[in-house]
Amino acid sequence: MTFTFRPVDPLNDAKLLHAWVTHPKAAFWMMQDARLEDVERAYMEIAADEHHHALFGLRDGEPVFLMEKYDPAHRELVGLYEARPGDVGMHFLTPATDTPEHGFTRAVITAVMAHLFEDPAVERVVVEPDVRNTAVHALNAAVGFVPEREIDKPEKRALLSFCTREQFEKAVTA
Questions:
Q1: Which DSSP state fits 7?
Q2: In Å, what is the CA distance from 39 to each residue of 20, 43, 92, 150?
Q3: d(CA 87, CA 14)
């Protein structure tokens, strides 16, 4: 599967994002009760933030997943671990579908990681999924993430995990 990326346009993309983030499948995104305006506002804040970026993953020009990348020294993980130069934080969301495609979500996380590592400044990807999100823990492990420890964030108990460029390359070529 081949994906391309484009920045989220908060106003034009809010309706699609709202459908994705409020679906029960996206419970760990923690926007279940968000109104359209809440989603617009959240993504306008991200668009204005130099340390946080939201991108759509496109297949044949159509949005098929969401990824966010952030600087963990300035967002999400400030004070919860010692950020290193070259660290980048990541979230991704594949929307609910009535026609699941075998291997799609793994292809998405692989594409997200490859996209992040296209930046030569990125040395390590950091994630902090909810400890209860066992499906994403398995996906993370499949692309080379190694859990370090559980941490308490204001909104959740999270599993802090890291993946270096070398761990990713080894995992996806194995």
A1: E
A2: 10, 6, 16, 28
A3: 29
* 20-54 pLDDT tens trace: 999 888 777 778 888 989 999 999 999 999 999 99
pTM over cut 0.90: yes
User: Residue 50's Cα: distance from chain center in Å?
Assistant: 17
- Residue in 30, 25, 28, 33 with CA at minimum distance from that of residue 132: 28
Residue spans of beta strands (DSSP E) within 50-138: 52-59, 62-70, 87-93, 124-127
How would you class 109 by CB atoms within 10 Å of its CB: exposed for 0-12, middle for 13-18, buried for 19 or more? buried
**58 - beta bridge partners?**
4, 63
Separation CA 121–CA 42 (nearest Å): 27
> Distance from CA of residue 71 to its chain's centroid?
12
- Reference 109, options 154, 140, 150; nearest CA is 140
Q: Which residue has the tokens 């699941």?
A: 100
Collect all residues with Cβ–Cβ distance below 8 Å to 38 and sequence separation of at least 6.
Answer: 31
**What span, in angstroms and rounded, lies between the C-alpha atoms of 57 and 112?**
8
